[in-house]
Amino acid sequence: MVSTPVLFLAGALAGVPALFAATAALPAGYPGSPYQGKVQAIPGRVFLSDFDQGPKNGTWHDYETKNPWACKVRDSTGVGLQIMGAGGDKGDTPEADSLVKARMGKCYLAETNTGDWTKYTVKVNQAGAYNLSILSAASETQVPFVAVSLLNGMDSAGTGQITLPLTTYFHHWVYTHNLAHLTLDTGMQVLRFDIPGNGPMNIDYIDFAYSGAAALKGPEGPAREGSTGLSVRGMVREAGGRVRIEFTSSGRAPVQVGVFDAFGARLHSETIRPQGGGVSAVSLPEAAISGSFSGTFSGLVFVKLDQGAVSAVFRTFLAGP
User: Fold this and answer.
1) 107-142 burial by CB neighbour count: b if 16+ within 10 A, else e?
2) CATH H-level superfamily of 35-212
3) 5-58 pLDDT tens trace
């Protein structure tokens, strides 16, 4: 069997390897629309105050019921928004100070809480690898962290946990370069920005800097080309704090199922003997994939299937509840 450096994408046709999937589309049934009709672009800067218009738990979720801060343009959502400069904002470094001054009078995402999230319609104009940099401020004793995911109608990509630096004061900002990396397909997609734990913090924007074309690689090297008969149908939540990974395979030979996080660390391994001609599944505790996330996990998960001499890696995504 010929081996090539490609990844079989979850949701794509099995046996059709490609460096990148076809142009992405928004997830079916997504209830949101771009704020003020303006789609944010990647490569470029995504402003977190400009989250999509739409219903609670559809385009945003927030611990508070009303925005308590000075930026009142979106009070009905409850998402905390503050005006740059209202709290004595300045940079902790000369670079950050220059960036803060350029944003005076503009709104930013303010005093986030654990479990908050917002979504943004974005257009990825160039397929390839990206470095993510963030302008943020946080002076709590617990080190804050966030997560970034991009969802579309075919596949999803996520950073896993991103650790943000503590600053000298809650309104003293820092611009942190290359906090995370993503490999993205072109097309319209939905960016989800999560606060999985250790809020509060202030965050203004995420810069997506293009760093070059790259294959979509999974853990333990690339998947092999061929009509494998292997595919991952998806990951869904079950009752009792468990998640279920459904997959198909060829014949009744045992399938070794490996589950990896966004960093390629092995989370779970199990051998399943398929019944033949249908869908098989692995059920495991959500805690096995949540890692250091506190609260409900959502994000990118790699699934590696091995059946005999055939192997394939798939990217799948556990959506929020």
Assistant:
1) bbbbbbebbbbbbbbbebeebbbbbbbbbbbbeeee
2) Galactose-binding domain-like (2.60.120.260)
3) 222 222 222 222 222 334 678 988 999 999 999 999 999 999 999 999 999 999
